[in-house]
């Protein structure tokens, strides 16, 4: 029997505001435990919350970027639960009136087709504190309590762990480009829970779902959903009764483990938050926020393919970070040769940055210098092989390529008379090359060209050398 997974993701995004959702405490990561707190985020009696307007702006910005409809009437609710990291014994969130709903993100599947993943809702809420477990007991740090979050909930449109990873990867890139979050999964700024069930292929009803928590990386997300799919398929095959559960991903053994039976919405006893006013979001407010949305990574990638004629893969890599995308955009515009610029960035420049542990923002030269390198290769001043050496000097010294070529006398030699003498010397010193060529071993031509390039310290024009070596071997044949 064939089964398919039905997956929906709940992504919690920590917003990059300076202060918390409902008080003036800093949202700065780290700090001495319980030092970024006040009566409001500690839930002390009589303390009253106040809405941080930037939280609303960031939620709106995200919703608009994810093609959502906006609820102009907004209300906050209390989600009641009794955990040690929830100082008020409830969380301020949105239940009945989320700020955004019915959006979508488009991903590219493994077969190259475009699939639309629906966004059910986006709502604003506050984060809880952080529990730390030691051999002597458990401690709680409330620095994170009250930090603003948005929760982005998909529709059950995802069918494979790979699609889930593709969705989260694209979502993360969009959020980072918007500037609403630093999306650092290692610091908890982006956290993902997955709801997964299985059903027979062709069946339209949903199976019994499990919610998998503690997926703090793309690799963990893919592994956890893959494991849970196999576990549930096996259970169905064996006639076991599945129940709605909350499970956690244990990375050390690469398995999901039961945490508790899954709470239902009525377990939380939602009711309106009486200490906060309702929000009426005007069309003017929405349009003001819309104007702050930059060109998003996937839009930029599509433009790069369209304007510069580079492959989709190149465009995808070049838009992984805003700095790299901007660097390429400016250099390609200047050089009027997008593919050449892309090759240098994705090839030798990326190699140099990886070897030195640096980023585009750390470079000592700019896009104009890289376009200059492309130009002097194209006009024959230097060869591509020499260009690699010039780029290394640019990386180390930050000088423009023309100055480096002049200072080091790296100008390419194209004079056929002078180069023919070098060709004759190499062939005279390597008589076996001529013998092999006479015997029909034409591949030896490449070896001969390499020897001439070596003799000229890479300054010979390789096109001219190829021509002269071929002509001379034919003459001696």
UniProtKB/TrEMBL annotation:
EC number: 6.3.5.-
A biological process from GO: glutaminyl-tRNAGln biosynthesis via transamidation
InterPro entries in the record: Asn/Gln-tRNA_amidoTrfase_suB/E, Asn/Gln-tRNA_Trfase_suB/E_cat, Asn/Gln_amidotransferase, Asn/Gln_tRNA_amidoTrase-B-like, GatB, GatB_C_1, GatB_Yqey_C_2, Gln-tRNA_amidoTrfase_suB_CS
Molecular function (Gene Ontology), one example: transferase activity
Catalysed reactions, as listed in the record: L-aspartyl-tRNA(Asn) + L-glutamine + ATP + H2O = L-asparaginyl-tRNA(Asn) + L-glutamate + ADP + phosphate + 2 H(+); L-glutamyl-tRNA(Gln) + L-glutamine + ATP + H2O = L-glutaminyl-tRNA(Gln) + L-glutamate + ADP + phosphate + H(+)
Tree of life domain: Bacteria
Short name of one Pfam family: GatB_Yqey
Keyword terms, alphabetized: ATP-binding, Ligase, Nucleotide-binding, Protein biosynthesis, Transferase
Span of domain Asn/Gln amidotransferase: 326-473
Assembly behavior: Heterotrimer of A, B and C subunits.
NCBIfam families found in the cross-reference section: gatB, PRK05477.1-2, PRK05477.1-4
Family per record: Belongs to the GatB/GatE family. GatB subfamily.
Function: Allows the formation of correctly charged Asn-tRNA(Asn) or Gln-tRNA(Gln) through the transamidation of misacylated Asp-tRNA(Asn) or Glu-tRNA(Gln) in organisms which lack either or both of asparaginyl-tRNA or glutaminyl-tRNA synthetases. The reaction takes place in the presence of glutamine and ATP through an activated phospho-Asp-tRNA(Asn) or phospho-Glu-tRNA(Gln).
UniProt name for this protein: Aspartyl/glutamyl-tRNA(Asn/Gln) amidotransferase subunit B
Primary gene name: gatB
